[in-house]
Amino acid sequence: MLYSEKVMDHFMNPRNVGKLDDADGIGEVGNAKCGDIMKIYIKVDNGVISDVKFQTFGCGSAIASSSMATELIKGKPVHQALELTNKAVVEALEGLPAHKIHCSVLAEEAIKCAIEDYQMKKSC
Ligand code: FES
């Protein structure tokens, strides 16, 4: 099968879908080639990602990657969430086809972007 059971599960039943109206950081990224867009919202309490939501307008792998990535950073300290790599997302999804790896890169970038947004807001 092209997609693992984990990918299918997170695509069919994505976790943490939606938006946070009181987000502390928002990250939005897109891939110019495929046109997919991913938006991640984070809530931070005492240096920990207490809540995270995503909105992804894109392919199934992008939805599964966002879902898994949000699960991987939920409840983690910000500095640890910042270290999340697309490789870790792919591993947690038990693999993605080669031409779909960029979908997981989008998830890594969106999370980094949301954390940078949070850090910038915090410093001023
Ligand atoms: Fe571009 Fe999936 S095809 S994010």
| Number of extended strands | 3
Heteromolecules bound: FE2/S2 (inorganic) cluster
* Major sheet description: 3 strands, antiparallel
SSE succession? HEEEHHHH
Strand content: 15-25%
Going across the biggest sheet, name each strand in turn.
1-2-3
Mean pLDDT: 97
- Which class best fits the helix and strand makeup? alpha+beta
Radius of gyration: 13 Å
Distance between the termini: 50 Å
Quick overview:
The chain has 124 residues and is of the alpha+beta class. It has helices at 5-12, 60-73, 78-81, 86-92, 101-123, and strands spanning 25-30, 37-45, 48-57. Residues 31, 34, 36, 58-59, 61-62, 100, 102-103, 106 line the site of FE2/S2 (inorganic) cluster.
Notes on the structure:
The model has no long low-confidence stretch (mean pLDDT 97). The chain has helices at 5-12, 60-73, 78-81, 86-92, 101-123, and strands at residues 25-30, 37-45, 48-57. α1 packs across α2 and α2 packs across α5. By secondary structure, the chain is α+β, with helices and mostly antiparallel strands. It is built from five helices and three strands; from the N terminus they run αβββαααα. 35% of the residues are buried. The longest helix has 23 residues, at 101-123. It binds FE2/S2 (inorganic) cluster.
Based on the model shown, name its key terms.
124 residues; alpha+beta; three-stranded antiparallel beta sheet; 5 helices; globular; binds FE2/S2 (inorganic) cluster
